[in-house]
Amino acid sequence: MGWQMAGAASRFAFKLVAVAVAVPVGKAVSSASSKAWEAARPGRAPVNPRDADTNWKDALIWASLSGVGTAVAQLATTKGADTIWRAMTGHPSPRPKQISDEKGPKAPSALTAINA
């Protein structure tokens, strides 16, 4: 079942799948965050903390809500792309390329840990 690519081509193709998943996920999470704000607080979300009308409480609530939304979007994108990749190819998604410098190897990224 499926097909298999080598190295760089496989990683590039997986990135395309991830982008195709990330766009609708990002829009959905953004919309859900805005709707959650509107349901919990009156007025529009304080997206600009430098706005004179933004108070600390609202800014902190919005930052927390945005942070949770970002984490959910990243998780949904990673798992969604991996699920689609496995359905398309019958193989696990490719691991990100490990880059090292003179100081030694880089610490594994969150994506590496998820794909392990």
Your description of this structure?
The protein has 116 residues and is mainly alpha-helical. It has one domain. Helices cover 64% and strands 3% of the residues. The protein contains three helices and two strands, in the order ααββα. It has a two-stranded antiparallel ribbon with strand order 1-2. Strand 1 and strand 2 form a beta hairpin. The protein is elongated, with a radius of gyration of 19 Å.
Measured as a percent range, the helix fraction is 55-70%
Q: What topology, given as strand order, has the largest sheet?
A: 1-2
Strand count, sense and barrel status of the largest sheet are: 2 strands, antiparallel
End-to-end gap: 22 Å
Count of alpha and pi helical runs = 3
Number of strands: 2
Measured by DSSP, the beta-strand proportion falls in under 5%
Gyration radius, to the nearest Å?
19 Å
Structural class: mainly alpha
What shape does the CA trace take?
elongated
Mean residue pLDDT: 84
| Count of discrete structural domains | 1
**N-to-C order of helices and strands:** HHEEH
Runs with pLDDT <50, length 5+?
Answer: none
Q: What are the defining features of this structure?
A:
116 residues, mainly alpha, 2 strands, 3% strand
